[in-house]
């Protein structure tokens, strides 16, 4: 099967082509991602109106680029997959309308995909994982454990009840005067710092289950920073490094312990996979690798360009859903909210 995938639920306009022949590894024939950082930079966050307009202007260009990079035409495709939510509704609509137009014009099957399912199924695209596996999605907008039993079957074991870790990294950078995005910059400083000088709280470790909280960390960081400033009149380079190191260690420790519990809840999984921008963090990755080793399951982290928002994961999820017999009509609707696990409570603080 060969699918075109479209994605526009946040601030990336993306189109990709995936080909999968049964029994062979899937091939990414094209993976076009047009980011919008420059458009939103001046506003300190994604502005929904600006994002929606930019997606509408760029979606068909991304599709043309993806098709030309793949060397295929529309007639070579078997279907069109599109993110139908969750996300900024104006943005989601851009790809949904484009996909419907293409489907109506060509007669190709249309498959609506949950953006989070795209992330959660990525380790099957990149590493050929078999079901069931445990997934930790950890990014600027999300933090949750999912047990993945099939392309339509997800169980949420827990997640953040407030901020996502990426958000906490970004706020930490802001409080310490480091540039955005915070994650990579905090990591760089932390590598040169003493993680034991400032001890930050490890929220919810005293409670059972896999829920997490990261909003208290930034308050603790603010307090520690202000205590140093009150004492010395300012922050030295080393103070900043030590604060970053203490903060990063606290996040890593919470993720490790909660991952241990999530793995203990599903002893039958074939692997432990992580995705999302925060999975790029070497310290966090190290903790999670060590933990998976201990539990005796392989640790899998797809390459970063497939961990952050992209359309290859949407095309792949579309192929998987289509194989399960799923197809949508031209009445497919865009959904601002769409929990993966219909039985889970509303995803507090999940960002979407
Ligand atoms: P989502 O797509 O889930 O809505 P997002 O677009 O913010 O959220 P990603 O692009 O997956 O998510 O990840 C970006 C986040 O990852 C940012 O918050 C960034 O600070 C964080 N991040 C990136 N690299 C690192 C790193 N090395 N260490 C820690 N955090 C990092
Ligand atoms: Fe995403």
Ligands in the model, by name, code or SMILES, are: adenosine-5'-triphosphate, fe (iii) ion
- The strand count comes to 10
Mean pLDDT: 93
Helical coverage, percent range: 40-55%
Sheet having the most strands: 5 strands, mixed
Q: Please tally the helical runs, counting DSSP H or I stretches of 4 or more residues.
A: 11
Strand order of the largest sheet: 3-2-1-4-5
Quote the beta fraction.
Answer: 15-25%
What is the radius of gyration? 21 Å
Please mark out the parts with pLDDT under 50 across 5 or more consecutive residues, or reply none: 347-352
> Which structural class fits the helix and strand makeup?
alpha/beta
Q: In whole angstroms, how far apart are the ends?
A: 31 Å
Subcellular location: Cytoplasm
Keywords: Acyltransferase, Cytoplasm, Iron, Metal-binding, Transferase, tRNA processing
Cofactor: Fe(2+)
Catalytic activity: L-threonylcarbamoyladenylate + adenosine(37) in tRNA = N(6)-L-threonylcarbamoyladenosine(37) in tRNA + AMP + H(+)
Describe the structure.
- GO terms for molecular function: iron ion binding; tRNA N(6)-L-threonylcarbamoyladenine synthase activity.
- One of its GO terms (cellular component) is cytoplasm.
- Substrate binds at residues 137-141, 170, 183, 187, 281.
- Its EC number is 2.3.1.234.
- The protein contains 11 helices and 10 strands.
- With 352 residues, the chain is of the alpha/beta class.
- It is globular and about 70 Å long.
- The two termini are 31 Å apart.
- Mean pLDDT is 93; it is low at 347-352.
- Fe (iii) ion (FE) is lined by residues 115, 119, 309.
């Amino acid at each position: 099967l060969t699918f075109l995938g479209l994605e526009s639920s946040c601030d990336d306009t993306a189109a990709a082509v995936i080909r999968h022949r049964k029994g062979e590894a899937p091939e990414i024939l094209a993976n076009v991602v047009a980011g919008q950082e420059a458009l939103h930079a001046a506003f300190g966050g994604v502005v929904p109106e600006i994002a929606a307009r930019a997606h509408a202007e760029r979606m068909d260009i991304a599709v043309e680029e993806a098709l030309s990079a793949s060397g295929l035409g529309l007639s070579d495709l078997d279907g069109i997959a599109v993110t139908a939510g969750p996300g900024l509704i104006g943005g989601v609509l851009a790809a949904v309308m484009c996909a419907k137009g293409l489907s109506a014009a060509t007669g190709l099957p249309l498959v609506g995909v949950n953006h989070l399912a795209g992330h959660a199924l990525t380790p099957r695209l990149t590493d050929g994982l078999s079901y069931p596996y445990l997934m930790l999605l950890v990014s600027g907008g999300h933090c949750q454990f999912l047990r993945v039993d099939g392309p339509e079957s997800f169980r949420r074991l827990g997640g953040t009840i407030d901020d996502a870790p990426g958000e906490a990294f970004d706020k930490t950078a802001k409080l310490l005067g480091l540039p955005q995005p915070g994650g990579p910059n905090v990591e760089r400083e932390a590598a040169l710092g003493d993680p034991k000088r400032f001890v930050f709280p490890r929220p919810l470790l005293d409670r059972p289950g896999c829920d997490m909280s990261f909003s208290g960390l930034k308050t603790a960081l603010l307090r520690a920073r202000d205590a140093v400033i009150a004492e010395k009149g300012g922050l030295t380079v080393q103070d900043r490094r030590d604060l970053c190191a203490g903060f990063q260690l606290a996040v890593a420790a919470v993720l490790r312990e909660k991952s241990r519990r999530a793995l203990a809840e599903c002893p039958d999984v074939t692997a432990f996979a992580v995705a999302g921008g925060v999975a790029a963090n070497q310290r966090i990755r190290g903790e999670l690798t060590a933990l998976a080793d201990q539990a005796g399951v392989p640790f899998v982290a797809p390459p970063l360009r497939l961990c952050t928002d992209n359309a290859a994961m949407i095309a792949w999820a579309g192929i998987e859903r289509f194989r399960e017999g799923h197809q949508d009509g031209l009445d497919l609707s865009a959904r601002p909210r769409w929990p993966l696990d219909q039985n889970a409570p509303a995803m507090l603080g999940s960002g979407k």
